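Task 17 of the worksheet. Students: predict the tertiary structure of the chain below and write it out as structure tokens. Keep your answer in the requested format; marks are given for formatting as well as content.
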Amino acid sequence: MMHLPQVPLIALLASVLALGCAAAGFKVGEPFAAGEGRFFDDGIDLIENLETLSGEWGYQAQDDLSGRVQLADFVAVVDILAVQLSQDVDGKESRRIDLQIKEPLLGKSPGMTLSMSASEESSGFATILRNEQRLTGSKIVFVRFFLDDAGGVRSHFHLSPDSPALRANVKKLIVARHREENAARAGTKGR
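Model answer:
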């Protein structure tokens, strides 16, 4: 059974209460679907400009970015504050990545800081280990929040570089998502 990173519900509620209006509108998304693990792998990539990729790699990278933006509950430019190693009682490693939100791009966060966790069972864990020295500075985070079977708030994430080219691409995809959502709402109202 796969162990998923969890944000304790009481900590989440405390963050929301502490922020008051700043967190108004935070919502937990739909249940996490198995296919979403491709987009929210609890990992990191280093591609600053998708235009530099060609062929299948370029197509795959753009498709992954589009999927992240379409499915994310929250997208933001963040600063990495700390990366900590932890082990569970079974000796399985994980890395906790503490993030400071600099610029929300899509959705609402439960607070101005987030803690994301990548367990060794996560598909992106190897990328976190290989690039741990690069887990500093500014990044773009894509997050899916969801409830587990016990009602606890959990999350999966993906980190990308905060480059001007990638940020512009993300913003363009967010505008397209908003257009699609608005069109779907307008179509529903017209019935």
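Marker's comment: The mean pLDDT is 85. Residues 6-189 form one domain.
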